[in-house]
Specification:
Radius of gyration of chain B: 13 Å
Largest sheet of chain A: 6 strands, mixed
Oligomer: heterodimer
Strand content of chain A: over 45%
Number of strands of chain B: 11
Number of helices of chain B: 0
Helix content of chain A: under 10%
Number of strands of chain A: 11
Largest interface: A-B, 23 and 24 residues
Structural class of chain B: mainly beta
Strand content of chain B: over 45%
Shape of chain B: globular
Distance between the termini of chain A: 40 Å
Number of helices of chain A: 0
Order of helices and strands of chain A: EEEEEEEEEEE
Structural class of chain A: mainly beta
Largest sheet of chain B: 7 strands, mixed
Chain lengths: 111, 115
């Protein structure tokens, strides 16, 4: 079956440092979504990427979809303590109605 | 944005009892809802896809007689954990999408503890 892996599993950064999480799918995706889950909370949608090579920005967050539509990345510039949480990518294959969540990257920001 | 309400937020029950969890879409109709299970520090594992007016589609390895899903209306899906055992203790969370293949909105989750 489809597998979606994320690296790293955990990341501790000093506040102000940059952070990147990488998402890799075993199959080609029709689109990819990113979610953030705060400790004790539920996942919250961040963005969806659809096109090959697409890059989208949300303030300090930059999302990228690979040319082959099998990988994606999320980069946070100058992290803040409010960025703490677990970031999940979620891939959707064409013809399927459900997304497969990645393994997640837990970000800890040290003030 | 769309709101998905999930109740209860937490439940403690004795082994052998059944627990019902509700998931409601408050401001949109959801023909499809999804139920996940999440263990501490792990990802969301899809258990089943709940389809309004028809049987749920269960993922491989998920017992349909153990985890009963009912999607009786366009705004409500329920998950019943039957004859719960301590190994069923987990965080259960539902999601719904106002439009197919677009973003998911999640309920706040239910922490189930079976004693």
């Amino acid at each position: 079956g489809q597998q979606v892996m994320q690296i790293p599993q955990y990341q501790h950064v000093q506040e102000g440092e940059d952070f990147t999480t990488y998402c890799n799918s075993s199959t080609t995706l029709s689109n990819i979504q990113w979610y953030k889950q705060r400790p004790g909370g539920h996942p919250v949608f961040l963005i969806q990427l659809v096109k090959s090579g697409e890059v989208k920005k949300q303030k300090r967050l930059t999302f990228q979809f690979g040319e082959a539509k099998k990988n994606s990345s999320l980069h946070i510039t100058a992290t803040q303590t409010t960025d703490v949480g677990t970031y999940f990518c979620a891939g959707l294959r064409g013809g399927y109605q459900k997304v497969t969540f990645g393994t997640g990257t837990k970000l800890q920001v040290i003030p | 944005g769309a709101v998905v309400s999930q109740h209860p937020s937490w439940v403690i029950c004795k082994s052998g009892t059944s627990v019902k969890i509700e998931c409601r879409s408050l401001d949109f109709q959801a023909t499809t809802m999804f139920w996940y299970r999440q263990f501490p520090k792990q990802s969301l594992m899809l258990m089943a896809t709940s389809n309004e007016g028809s049987k749920a589609t269960y993922e491989q390895g998920v017992e349909k007689d153990k985890f009963l899903i009912n999607h009786a209306s366009l705004t409500l899906s329920t998950l019943t954990v039957t004859s719960a055992h301590p190994e069923d203790s987990s965080f259960y969370i539902c999601s719904a999408e106002p439009r197919a293949n677009e973003k998911l909105f999640f309920g706040s989750g239910t922490q189930l503890s079976v004693l």
